[in-house]
Structures are given as C-alpha cells and as structure tokens.
Specification:
Number of strands: 6
Number of helices: 9
Largest sheet: 6 strands, mixed
Radius of gyration: 17 Å
Strand content: 15-25%
Helix content: 25-40%
Length: 216
C-alpha cells in the first residue's frame, strides 16, 4: 500500500497595531497592504478599524495578521491601553512631508512601550514608516536622521513608503512579520541583530529594496 506523506502546517496569529497621527496615511497603507487598493477619498478613521491578512509565509507556516487601525486623534490615546492589549507588533507611521508627525511618532512609540510588552518583558517589535515618499517636499535632513532616530526610540527598522504608488508596503509588512516570528521562536537578541537589514536611503532604491535602520 502506498504511503502518503503528511505535511504539518503551523498557523500563527499576530495582532498588529498601526498607529500615528491623523492624516499620515495609516488607513491607506493598510488598504494597500490587505487589498492592493488605494482610495484618494478615504476618510480618517474614528476609533478603531480592523482588517485581516493571511500570508503563506513558507511551506509549513501560515500567518494571520489582525491589523488594528487606530485613529490618530489625541482623544483616542486615552483609550490606547485597551487597544494595545496582547499586541504582537506595531507599525508607527509619519508623513515625511510634515516633520511634526515624526515628533508625534516618537510619542506614539513611548505610549506603546509604556502600555504593552511581550511575554518575555521586551517591547513589541515596531517598524517606522516614512509615508508619502511620492510627494514633493521630502525633507532630506529628516531622512538622514532616521537611522539614529530608530536607534534612540527602539524601532527595529524604517522604510520610506507610499500607499499611493505601492512603494515598500509589502516589504515593510514582511520585515515586521519576520521580526514577530523571531520573537515567537525565542531567538536571542544577538541572533535577531544578525537578521536585521541595512541598505542605502535613496528614494529610487526604496522602490525595490527595504529601507531600515540597524537594530539597536
């Protein structure tokens, strides 16, 4: 009698927070990532929206992402502890044509770290997205400071992104998923450091490569 090989598939469910000030493009990034769609007329979120994305990570691993699109208005920060509960990772978004939203991204990251952590006690993996890189008015000095900003604030990486032109959206998502899996499998900090990427920061290269800072 012929033998049939059985492949075991591991399913992982991760709750991912998408946070940042209002108007930076959080909802547009999620729509592009989940539905490969961009809507110029998308209205700002009120409260929290939820999206699901399923990824066939490898031959034996299915990853399900529960994306929490949290409104950026100040009043919703007061409820953030409830929103952050049991998060596995986070995306913090700022508008690279508006430097004040980068300052706000620092505050969102501090709020995140103060209210949720992994079971190990470490901060949840977080990636910084410099969104709207398709627009004119990009601040070159701001871009050049993002490596040190990420190191100082505890981000594992950063990417220039455009939801409109679909630049680095999937790459940023894959990077975060990989970091969450590494945390899930309990790899040491040194092993995680070796897994982090560093590439150049030109906009042209950002369309085909991920832009991220060196992990602290």
């Amino acid at each position: 009698m012929a033998r049939h090989s059985l492949s075991l598939c591991t399913e992982k469910l991760y709750k991912v927070l998408v946070i940042g000030d209002t108007g930076v493009g959080k909802s547009s990034i999620i729509l592009r990532y989940v539905q490969q769609h961009f809507d110029n007329g998308y209205k700002p979120s009120i409260g929290v929206d939820f999206f699901m994305k399923t990824i066939e990570w490898d031959a034996n691993t299915l990853v399900r992402l529960q994306l929490w699109d949290i409104a950026g208005q100040e009043r919703f920060k007061k409820m953030s502890r409830a929103y952050y509960k049991e998060a596995s990772g986070a995306v913090v978004v700022f508008d690279m044509t508006n430097s004040s939203t980068l300052e706000a991204a620092s505050e969102w990251k501090q709020d995140l770290d103060s209210k949720v952590c992994l079971d190990s006690g470490r901060p949840v993996p977080a990636v910084l997205l410099a969104n709207k890189c398709d627009k004119t008015g990009r601040d070159g000095d701001l871009v050049s400071s993002l490596d040190s900003f990420c190191n100082d604030k505890g981000f594992l990486g950063w990417f220039e992104t455009s939801a409109k032109d679909n630049i680095n959206i999937d790459e940023a998502g894959a990077f975060l998923v990989k970091q969450m899996i590494l945390c899930d499998t309990g790899l040491s900090n040194e092993e995680r450091r070796r897994d982090t990427i560093k590439v150049s920061q030109t906009l042209e290269e950002s369309q085909s490569q991920s832009l991220c800072c060196k992990m602290p």
